[in-house]
């Protein structure tokens, strides 16, 4: 599948811009191949630069402020040149996606209303800018896929997904935004907590999983929040029993959460066993279902998993 975004022709310069992606389906850490085509009208068009940016709608740190479209990553693919009158100029690219690129597709289904796109910015003389937008579909890495599938198997139900324009304290975060996945809590874990948010922070070696837990009492307004962090490596992920791994994370996080709120009478520890009605989803191999959007290299490094 190929997708093309086309700009309106500029009345001032006669320049039109179109961006075509060879395959809009991709994963974090891969390269996104495509081509920018610039077409001039009846006069020469001096171009200062051509840039590609990843954009998405994100929530600001201030919860009272409205959501807005933000550009969270940008790459320059062309410098100064001239597109002659009546001629075209093509720029081929293979943009490397950041490892922290938000996931927008899981199990072949879009994650709620979360969308991201590739925006082309063409700066021309005089001070004018034109561009085209094309959507991209970001599938999870195998490690991310395993965690998401395990939560689904354990009975957690996704209720909301969004981007937040903020930095996470104490985390080696490269992008100015991070993705949060909110879940309805599975019955086994519903006593000690009422809300669960999942955050991935990814790099070439592995994945940090942040579990943000909350326990609210609607009648009293009492609330206690806690964040637990766990680290896994991309290498060897297919050999893990992911339902057991994620269940262990949840138990450790909930017990830590309960200990921190030990003065509250509603705090409780998890002591029961997790029972699942079906086996976890089969692991997704690198490159599966992506139509060759990029190579499988670079999804490795590190050693065995650990928790912190």
UniProtKB/TrEMBL annotation:
Residues 1-30, 271-308 are annotated as: Disordered. It comes from the Bacteria. Residues 13-26 have a biased composition (Polar residues). Pfam families: Spo0M. Residues 288-308 have a biased composition (Gly residues). This is Sporulation-control protein spo0M. It comes from Micromonospora matsumotoense. The lineage of its organism: Bacteria, Bacillati, Actinomycetota, Actinomycetes, Micromonosporales.
């Amino acid at each position: 599948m190929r997708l093309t975004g086309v700009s309106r022709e500029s009345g001032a310069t006669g320049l039109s811009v179109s961006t075509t992606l060879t395959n809009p389906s991709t994963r974090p850490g891969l390269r996104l191949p495509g081509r920018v085509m610039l077409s001039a009208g009846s006069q020469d068009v001096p171009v200062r630069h051509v840039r590609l940016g990843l954009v998405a709608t994100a929530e600001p740190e201030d919860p009272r402020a409205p959501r807005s479209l933000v550009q969270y990553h940008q790459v320059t693919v062309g410098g100064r040149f001239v597109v002659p009158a009546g001629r075209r100029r093509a720029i081929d690219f293979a943009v490397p996606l950041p490892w922290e690129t938000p996931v927008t597709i899981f199990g072949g289904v879009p994650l709620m209303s979360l969308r991201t796109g590739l925006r082309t910015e063409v700066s021309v003389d005089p001070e004018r800018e034109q561009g085209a937008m094309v959507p991209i579909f970001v599938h999870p890495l195998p490690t991310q896929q395993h965690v998401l599938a395990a939560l689904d198997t354990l009975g957690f139900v996704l209720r909301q997904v969004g981007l937040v324009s903020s930095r996470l304290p104490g985390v080696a975060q490269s992008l100015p935004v991070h993705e949060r996945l909110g879940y309805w809590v599975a019955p086994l874990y519903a006593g000690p907590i009422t809300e669960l948010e999942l955050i991935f922070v990814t790099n070439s070696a592995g994945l940090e999983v942040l579990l943000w837990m909350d326990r609210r009492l609607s009648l009293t307004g009492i609330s206690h929040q806690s964040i637990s962090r766990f680290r896994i490596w991309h290498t060897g992920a297919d050999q893990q029993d992911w339902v057991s791994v994620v269940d262990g994370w949840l138990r450790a996080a909930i017990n830590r959460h309960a200990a921190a709120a030990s003065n509250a009478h509603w705090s409780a520890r998890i002591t029961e066993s997790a029972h699942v009605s079906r086996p976890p989803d089969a692991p997704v191999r690198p490159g599966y279902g992506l139509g060759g959007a990029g190579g499988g290299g670079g999804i490795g490094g590190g050693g065995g998993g650990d928790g912190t």
